[in-house]
C-alpha cells in the first residue's frame, strides 16, 4: 500500500492547509445580517483558491478526462457500460454495508447484504444486477455521510484537484475509505495493487461518462459554472445524508440507476 499512502498523503496535505486558511478567513461584520446570511449560505471562504483548483480541473477534464469518457462511450456499447457499472457497484457493497451499520440503518444494511449476495452469486460477481428486479434496489453510503450522521459538521466548501467538489468532512471520509476498502486491502495483500488502480480508473471513467450530457447542459445554462456546481454538490450531499428524506428538494442518491445522478443534477439546475 506504499504507493496508495503516498497518493493519499499528497491529497491530505493541501486539504489540511486549506482548512487552516479557512479558519483564519474573516467573515462579514456581525451587524451586517444580510452579508452574514449570504456568507453562511455559500460557505466558501476559500473561493479564490477553490476557483483556481476548479480551473485546473476544467483543463484536465477538457484535455484528458472528458475525451476519455467520450471515447469510452463511443467504443463500449451501452450493454457493456452497464455491466461495468454493475460490477463496480457490487465491489463497493462492503463499504456501503459498513456505513449502513455505522449509521444505525439496520434495514438498509440488510438490504445491502442480500443485494450483494444475490448479485455476487446469481449475478456472476455483479455482472448482472438480479437484485433490483427482485425488489432490492441499490443505494450508496460513504464514511463522509456517516460522519455527518454522527454530528460532524461539513466545514468550508473545498474544490479538490481531480476529485472535485468536497469539504473537510467528506475528504476525511474519502481518505478513510481509501485505507479501509476490503477489496483494495485484499489486492494489496496479494501484491496485485494494479487491479485496485484499474478499478479506480474505471470508476472515474464510469462516473464521468454518466455525466457527459448533464454537465454539458449545466455548463451551457449556468451564468457561473463554478457556483452552480458548488450549490448542486451541497444540495446533493444534504439529500444523501438524509437518505432522500426531507430537507427540501429530494435528490436521489447516486447509483440508483445509470442516469440517476445526471437526472438529479439536471433537475436541480433548472
From TrEMBL:
This is Surface lipoprotein. GO terms for cellular component: membrane. It comes from the Bacteria. InterPro entries: MlaA (IPR007428). The lineage of its organism: Bacteria, Pseudomonadati, Pseudomonadota, Alphaproteobacteria, Rhodospirillales. It holds the Pfam family MlaA. PROSITE patterns: PROKAR_LIPOPROTEIN (PS51257). Belongs to the MlaA family. Residues 1-30 form the signal peptide. Residues 239-270 are annotated as: Disordered. Keywords: Lipoprotein, Signal. GO terms for biological process: intermembrane phospholipid transfer.
Amino acid at each position: 500500500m506504499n504507493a496508495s499512502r503516498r497518493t493519499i498523503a499528497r491529497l491530505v496535505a493541501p486539504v489540511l492547509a486549506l482548512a487552516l486558511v479557512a479558519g483564519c478567513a474573516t467573515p462579514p461584520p456581525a451587524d451586517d445580517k444580510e452579508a452574514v446570511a449570504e456568507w453562511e449560505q455559500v460557505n466558501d471562504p476559500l473561493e479564490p483558491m477553490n476557483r483556481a483548483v476548479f480551473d485546473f480541473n476544467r483543463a484536465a477534464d477538457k484535455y484528458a478526462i472528458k475525451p476519455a469518457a467520450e471515447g469510452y462511450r463511443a467504443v463500449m456499447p451501452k450493454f457493456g457500460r452497464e455491466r461495468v457499472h454493475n460490477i463496480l457497484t457490487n465491489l463497493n457493497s462492503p463499504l456501503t454495508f459498513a456505513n449502513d451499520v455505522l449509521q444505525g440503518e439496520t434495514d438498509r444494511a440488510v438490504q445491502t447484504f442480500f443485494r450483494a449476495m444475490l448479485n455476487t452469486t446469481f449475478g456472476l460477481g455483479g455482472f448482472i444486477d438480479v437484485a433490483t428486479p427482485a425488489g432490492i434496489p441499490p443505494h450508496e453510503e460513504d464514511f463522509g455521510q456517516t460522519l455527518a450522521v454522527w454530528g460532524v459538521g461539513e466545514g468550508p466548501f473545498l474544490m479538490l484537484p481531480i476529485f472535485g467538489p468536497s469539504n473537510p468532512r467528506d475528504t476525511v471520509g474519502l481518505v478513510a475509505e481509501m485505507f479501509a476498502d476490503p477489496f483494495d486491502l485484499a489486492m494489496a495483500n496479494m501484491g496485485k495493487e494494479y487491479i485496485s488502480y484499474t478499478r479506480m480508473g474505471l470508476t472515474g471513467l464510469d462516473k464521468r461518462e454518466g455525466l457527459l450530457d448533464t454537465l454539458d447542459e449545466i455548463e451551457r445554462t449556468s451564468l457561473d459554472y463554478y457556483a452552480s456546481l458548488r450549490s448542486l454538490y451541497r444540495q446533493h450531499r444534504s439529500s444523501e445524508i438524509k437518505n432522500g428524506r426531507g430537507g427540501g428538494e429530494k435528490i436521489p442518491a447516486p447509483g440508483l440507476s445509470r442516469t440517476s445522478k445526471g437526472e438529479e443534477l439536471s433537475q436541480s439546475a433548472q
